């Protein structure tokens, strides 16, 4: 039986899960592939650290050269995280003739153009199912399952931490700070949660989704991104009274005018399929011409769910390798149709959708009329409105749902109203 060597960079959560699955399913993998997969080296920073999985000590190394220089290693699995040295190691692996599997959204979202170009140049694969929505076979579904269809939009919950926090706020009435502390205590949020609750992690994933779904390379820094830390218990309750649940969504749309991408908290109708996604689960709703809507749901992170995606990538590369598909340049795994030049996104100002507005104003006669007049002057129509009784400081909350409106006129009206306001978008079409 043929044997393919695997080198793993990183033995943390996902690395340990990957080693465990490769061991537990060895017989099934061999039967499926007609070849064995052998872990030949595992790169770590600290060889003495206790690990979540048993690995023969002689396989552990702190020297990347031991992985890259081993001619028996055909597939390098990068599970270290971060941009450097992951980027340098991936490029070096490709140049050493290895194929690369990674779950590292940060390095691909920020340095993907360089990595995919190098993979295409040397004729090696870079596959990355685990980098978006953990164990859910989402990228493979977009790439293979919808290969004969045209994807026009996607919209989803791709950051489990943000969903866990918003879900806790919805269920318990807690404020953001308490819900975040609960998520940290339960292991669903990092000590520094900025990348998750600020929307940066979702923007990285949306850039990769856009690459696979729309074939465009986008700098994640150019994706309009709004986090969830300003959402209050009041907003959650007011949205619920209007029939909505607040979710942090990554949204991508493609039409004849181009591609628009954005990440922001969104009011989703209580009956919408994404409204029922609880806890740290992920779900992505995809719209394509021929199939129509399709939904991908499951655990978007965690040791074993993510390892499932990583091992399926290893198997895909191994299968293609054994079939002799990597004999020359030009094949770069999942991104064959990607454009080479980064695209300019349509500005957020072009997006037309209904809005939730919550003004805080002194409870004095005439304020409501003044706000309504400002909105009216800029062509913003109000669909529904309610007013909360004054709080101890004498201010009242005016909650409004607008009809669909473009960003520009609404922003101008809000400047003119000159009152503290929380403004959240509704799902397009609602
Ligand atoms: N955790 C998840 O649920 C999840 C889900 C989807 C995607 N991912 C992605 O999967 C990747 C791995 O995540 P993780 O949670 O498994 O990370 P982790 O637990 O922090 O593990 C990282 C591993 O990489 C090793 N490492 C880091 N820098 C290194 C360096 N310079 N040289 C050698 N080894 C180095 C560490 O070695 P030491 O142990 O010796 O320090 C550790 O074993 C990340 O890109 C992450 O975004 C994770």
Automatic annotation (TrEMBL):
Enzyme Commission (EC) number: 1.1.1.3
Keywords: Amino-acid biosynthesis, Methionine biosynthesis, NADP, Oxidoreductase, Threonine biosynthesis
Active site, per annotation: 205 (proton donor)
Pathway where it operates: Amino-acid biosynthesis; L-methionine biosynthesis via de novo pathway; L-homoserine from L-aspartate: step 3/3; Amino-acid biosynthesis; L-threonine biosynthesis; L-threonine from L-aspartate: step 3/5
Binding positions (NADPH): 105
UniProt binding sites for L-homoserine: 190
One GO term of the biological process aspect: methionine biosynthetic process
Gene3D superfamilies xref list: 3.30.70.260, Dihydrodipicolinate Reductase, domain 2, NAD(P)-binding Rossmann-like Domain
Chain residues that bind NADP(+): 9-16
Positions of the ACT domain: 356-430
GO MF, one example: homoserine dehydrogenase activity
Catalytic activity: L-homoserine + NADP(+) = L-aspartate 4-semialdehyde + NADPH + H(+)
Enzyme class: oxidoreductase
NCBIfam families named in the record: PRK06349.1
Family: Belongs to the homoserine dehydrogenase family.
UniProt-recorded name of the protein: Homoserine dehydrogenase
Organism: Nannocystis exedens
